[in-house]
Amino acid sequence: MGKGISPFIASVLLIAFTIAVGTIVSLWINALMRSQASEVGSEADLAVKCRKAGIRILDETIKCNFTGTDYLNFSLENTGYIDMYDFRAYLYVNGVTYSYAVLDADTNQNFTKDSPLKIGEIKTVKVNITDDFSPATISWLKISTQCPDISDRVENITC
């Protein structure tokens, strides 16, 4: 008859295995919780900051060009108390919504966290139109920002 492991050694091995698995699971859960807490913290931080945000399209400055290189130019004002970036232009024309990047007219670059529209600043911006809807009346132009609830909208733009 062959010899097996003693019940004492089996119990010790079972306890050691359980502790090892518990430690691995504990480390994994801890890392997951930290990751989630960091993500929630970032979202909460943005939400708090965004309560101080504001943006305005200076509609009297809107200029359209639909001959050759199509674009919209207008001035954008940061009316809030935080820097603004990640601008997106939405144009509603003939029953269709179009989406475009909003660029700094001077540099032809996007507004980013590192290169924002600063508090109180007014800049001329440019929206390069890549779709063909000229000549047209733009039913509305909406500018969105990094803050989900902060935007501005102008209606009935004739180009």
| Poorly predicted sequence stretches spanning 5 or more consecutive residues | none
Radius of gyration: 28 Å
Number of strands: 8
CATH level 1 class label of the largest domain: Mainly Beta
Spatial strand arrangement across the major sheet: 1-2-6-5
Overview of the molecule:
With 159 residues, this protein is of the alpha+beta class. 28% of the residues lie in helices and 35% in strands. The chain contains one helix and eight strands, in the order H-E-E-E-E-E-E-E-E. It has two domains: 1-50; 55-158, Immunoglobulin-like, CATH 2.60.40. It has a four-stranded antiparallel sheet, with no helix packed on it. The protein has a four-stranded antiparallel sheet with strand order 4-3-7-8, with no helix packed on it. The mean pLDDT is 85.
Condensed summary:
The protein is α+β, with helices and mostly antiparallel strands and 159 residues long. It has one helix at residues 7-50; strands at 55-65, 71-78, 88-93, 96-101, 103-104, 122-128, 137-144, 151-158.
Task: Describe the SSE topology.
Elements: H1 7-50, E1 55-65, E2 71-78, E3 88-93, E4 96-101, E5 103-104, E6 122-128, E7 137-144, E8 151-158
Antiparallel strand pairs: 1-2, 2-6, 3-4, 3-7, 5-6, 7-8
Features:
Immunoglobulin-like, alpha+beta, 159 residues, four-stranded antiparallel β-sheet, single chain, 35% strand, 2 domains
